[in-house]
Amino acid sequence: MLTIYYVAGTRAIRPVWLCEELQIPYQRQDVSFDPEFRASTEWRKINPVGKVPAMRDGDLVLFESCAMVQVILDRYGNDQLAPKPGTNENALMQQWSWFAESTLARPAGEIVNHQRVFGKDTVAKAIAEMKERVRLCLKAVDDAIVDKEFLLDFGFSAADINLGYSLHLANKYVDYDDLVNAKAYYERLAARPAFQRSII
Q: What's the pTM?
């Protein structure tokens, strides 16, 4: 059975949310976010950089959440939540999925890391810069989602799941109520029952 190693609030939300949307069986294995556990030999055999999440499917072990999403789609998606490969819609799904992690989640994650490691007051300038980067990304989402329910004309897809986690992270640290399209889009995603099940 598919096993997802999970800590609340981490990128583990992505593969759990996808499994919930697809209504496929999986096991959620809650693990410690304690630095000692994540540095342990036991955990490093599963995730060599000591991060969360990780996923096991038979003899395959993955430690990147967007790769987990793609593998779950490929193996268990039954042509759901992804446009046909080779189409423009699939290319756009890939673009927004990569954007979600490499462009938006990176500065949002740095806010989390700086506050966790150094405290809120010691890195105010770095956090301010990261918030500006996040807002720039949120503006791109805001522009892309005008008059649309989801990112793709295809409808709800894995791109929305990947971006949804990044928006979930950004929503905790950056005020973007003025970006009404992006905010409404996040609220639509966050209201999905499968998303709600993925964050508890």
A: 0.85
